[in-house]
Fold this sequence. Notes:
mainly alpha; 90% helix; 0% strand; rod-shaped
Amino acid sequence: MPMSEDERRELGELETQLSRQPRLVKLERRLSWASVDIGLRRTSVLWGVGGAVGLILVVAGTVAHSTAVGTAGVIILIATLLVAGVAVFVIAIRGQRRESRLAHDRRFHSP
């Protein structure tokens, strides 16, 4: 639903007023980075758990002289590395986009 010119003007005025409140600006910055931090933590957990399971399987395959178990461990290690790597790139790109958007908003709505 498109906004009317009056609604856009009022929204711009409200954004300008809110940008003058230092506590709100600080809170906005903290909230914008929260999702990036949570994403990186989740990725770290994924990488750690997948790496540990893969390494355990590789060691177990070596000890038991089982090629199948060792191969499964290597496959899990590679898959974990690929998934975690892609997730880190996605999180970084989202953070950059958010940062760019915030800088753009500040430039046009600064008091």
